[in-house]
Structure formats: structure tokens, C-alpha cells
Amino acid sequence: MDIDYIIRISGPMLEGARTTVLLFLIVIVLSIPLGMVVTLMAKSTLKPLAWIAHAYIYVMRGTPLLLQLFFFCFGLPQIPVIGEYLVMDRFVAASLGFILNYGAYFAEIFRGGLLSIDKGQHEAAKVLGLSRWQTLRKVILAQMFRVALPAVANESITLVKDTALLYAVAVPELLNFAKTAVNRDFTVTPFVVAGVIYLLMTLVLTLFFKLLEKRFKFE
Amino acid sequence: MSSMIEVRQLKKDFGSLSVLNQISFDVKPGEVVAVIGPSGSGKSTMLRSLVHLEEVTGGSISICGKALVEDGRYASTANIRDITSRMGMVFQHFNLFPHLSVRDNLELAPRTLKRESVQQITAKSRELLSKVGLSDKADVYPSTLSGGQKQRVAIARAMMLSPDILLFDEPTSALDPELTGEVLRVIRQLAEENMTMMIVTHEMSFARDVADRVFFMDNGDIAESGTPEEIFGSPKLERTRAFLMRE
Q1: CB–CB of A129 and B81 under 8 A?
Q2: What does the longest C-alpha to C-alpha distance in chain A come to?
Q3: A130 vs B112: CB contact, 8 Å cut-off?
Q4: Less CB within 10 Å around the terminal CB: N or C of chain B?
Q5: Has this prediction a pTM greater than 0.90?
């Protein structure tokens, strides 16, 4: 591996990493609130709402992410009649698939967080005169996020790596650039460079979540 | 003045099991009532019914003259909240909010309900923390406190909304024996200040000492009630005597 070559390919690869980071940010920012809403729906006393939430979680967790991406990128336009209105930019379609998939996983993580909260917390809040909504906002959610934090960190790191699935729907991103360079230059170096860039991204995330966990230790 | 708490023919069933069996009693202003009895006798259920943590099957509960439930029919949600907010409750397992500092545990409810100004609320939390002897713990999280300290914080928190009545559900049962004293001292002080209280407890000597009246509950009934002298000195019922011998 010579340094000049690494520097030369690093430019375009970092360009590809921008797509990776962009997808990551879009998915995290939208799927966490989505997961939150789905968790609350799953806990709802309105049965149809809970049923929809459970069905959604089941479908999204029970099928491969790659299949879902294919479905949104290549499947939707094939639907008779309405298909032609469902042709999206492939990056947008893939983002949608990622958001819906990760939303389901986050919903399950948050549900676990909710289960861990003692019913005494609800009782104390109720006796203090808080409404159910106030209790949820001021007492339950903060504790739920704290409990869910390690699992959220884990899921986020998985997401960084899953962005490589964009390769399969031909959206140019980090891995795509690496693969192109490998084919063109007959060297394995681009794969190593890509690996290092992924490691750097997950390192940043790991440190960020460590910081959050420390900040919210409640000690 | 009439009764602070008025309970008539209170009934609570879990399926076919009758937990509270047509209980009736009154608690007068400033009165301290200790509730004793074996586990499963319905003490906690009775206390929790008063603040609507348990829904009863039948009977009536009035708090300060307002009907929480009348012949098994509950008031509206808004009225229920209004009526139960006149009572503070202290739980066996403290139920402090672990994600909030001690001060914020006290101030969360008053700040959310906005019945008083922020200055009034902070002044009150400072005063109550000093009253329970925990002024230096205002900024720490509950996880760093001992059980006795946690329960004193819980009492201060229950006092923040200036309740007319305080309910204690086995306030010392989860504590190491050497930590019960500090909690009982705070409760005793409240009794001296004429706070109306109902205390479910296993601390017989404390009940004898601090209560104006003692209820002995057994099998979902108030089997016997009277002054501490009557209940502990010369209980009328054989089962009261048997229970007191065991304790």
C-alpha cells in the first residue's frame, strides 16, 4: 500500500462517506420519533391502534432489510395504476425503507424501556395530581430513554454498517466507491480504507453515547 | 367540623375474592389513625382506595365533604383529581423519581400544576427539606440516599401540595431497622402539628405511641377499633389478641 495512492482515493471515498453520513442522520432523526410513536400506539388502550403497531413491528422485523429496500426502490413503481406515482429518487426511497425498518426496532427497544419502569412511578405521579400525559412526559419518558440508551447506541452502530446496503440499490456511497476502485486498480487497499472510515464513524458514535450515558447516570 | 374522611360500606372484590368487606369509618380533622393487621387483611387496599389507586366495587368515600365515590359510582375524572389532590401519600418503596434531583422530586408536581408561583414553590421545598433534615441533599439524586433519607424525601414531596390528609402505606417496612427511627420521628412531628393521618404499619410501639385511634383489620374488615390503650391494653377479640402476641 503506498501513501500517495491512499491519499488519491481518499478524496472520492470521503465523498461517498458523505452519502453514508447523510443517510445515517436522516434515518436516526426520523426513526427514533417514529419508534416512540409506535411504542405508544402499541401500549394504547385503543385496540385497533395497538394492533396496527404490532403488525407493523412484526412485518418490519420479520423480513430482510434488503428486501424492504428492493421493495421501496424497485417494487413500488411496479404496482399497477398507482405505481407510476411512486417512482422516487432511489436515495429517497432507500431512506424511507431504512426509516420504517429502524422505526420498528426502536419501537421494540423503547417498549423494553417502558416495561422496566416500576408501576410505583405511575402511582406516585398520579397521587401527586399529574395527568397521564404529564406523567408520561415528565416521569416516564426520561426514565425510558435512560434505560434504552445502551440498546439505542447498539442500534445506531448497526445502522452505520447497514448503510452499506445502499450498494445493492445502486446509490453511490462509501462501499460503492471502494468497490469501484478495487475493480479499477486491482488492489485491496480501497476496502481497507473504507473499513477504517467505517471504524472512525462508529468510534465517534461510541464516544458520543458513552458521554450521554455518563451525563444521564442520575447519580 | 365534619369528618375529613368518611367511608361507608366500602367494598372491593378481585374476581370472586372479597378484599374489602363493607368497611365504614370516619377520620376527624387532626386525628392520627394507625391501621394494623395481618398481611392480606386489606389494609393497603383500603388506603389505596382513598386516593383512587384502587377502584372499589361498591360503597362511598368522601374526602373533606366531597364525594370521591358514592354507592360505587365515581365522580368525574376532573373531580377525582381535585379530591385526591387534597391527600398526600407515602409508599413503602418510596417511589421517588430516580431521574430527578431531590429538589426536583419535590418541585415537579407543584411546578407542573402551577397553582403557586415558582418563588413560593422553591421557598416551600427549601423549608420542607430542612424540616425533614435533608437540606444538604437538595441537589443529589435519590440513588445516593439511604432508605431512611429516601423516605424522608418522599414525605417532604407529599407535603409540597399542602395536603389536608397524609396517608402512609407501611412507610418503614422496606427500611433497615436502624433507619426506621428517623422516619418515625418525622411522622411523629407531623402528628404534633395536627396533621390528619392514616398510617398502615407493622410498628406496634409506634402505633401505640403516635395514634389517636387504632384499626385492627382482618379478612377485609375493621375487626376492632379503639384508642391505643383499648386495642393494645385490653383487646376485645381473640384474633386481635392473637395478632398482637405474634407481632
Answers
A1: yes
A2: 71
A3: yes
A4: N
A5: no
DSSP, res B163:
-
- Cell 410505583 locates to A120
% chain A with pLDDT above 90: 77
Inspect the interface and report whether the beta carbons of A129 and B113 lie closer than 8 Å.
Answer: yes
CB pairs under 8 A between A and B: 61
pLDDT tens digits along A61-76: 999 999 999 999 999 9
CA distances from B107 to A130, A153, A201, B88, B204 (A): 12, 32, 41, 14, 33
What DSSP line would sit under A40-80, residue for residue? Answer: HHHH-SSHHHHHHHHHHHHHHHHS-HHHHHHIIIIIGGGST
Which DSSP string do the residues of A151-190 spell out, in sequence order?
A: HHHHHHHHHHHHGGGGGGGT---HHHHHHHHHHHHT-SHH
- Closest to B109 (Cβ–Cβ): which among A120, A130, A142? A130
Contact A130 B113 (CB under 8 A): yes
How are beta strands B213-218 and B58-63 bridged, if at all? unpaired
CB-based contact, A4 to chain B, within 8 Å: no
The stretches in chain A having pLDDT less than 70 are: 1
**Among all residues of chain B, which has the CA nearest to that of A141?**
B99
Closest residue in B to A217 (Cα–Cα):
B99
Condensed to tens digits (0 to 9), the pLDDT of residues B135-188 reads: 999 999 999 999 999 999 999 999 999 999 999 999 999 999 889 999 999 999
B33-61 confidence digits (pLDDT tens): 999 999 989 999 999 999 999 999 999 99
CA distance A163 to A23: 7
Nearest C-alpha neighbor of B38 from the set B183, B220, B172, B229 = B220
Tell whether B112 lies on the interface with A, counting CB pairs under 8 A.
yes
ipTM over 0.90 threshold: yes
B10-33 residue pLDDT tens: 999 988 889 999 999 999 999 999
Contact B95 A124 (CB under 8 A): yes
Q: Report the percent of chain A where pLDDT is more than 70.
A: 100
Find the length of chain B.
247
A216 close to B (CB below 8 A): yes
DSSP B56: -
pLDDT of residue B236: 93
Smallest CA–CA distance, residue B228 to chain A, in Å, is 29
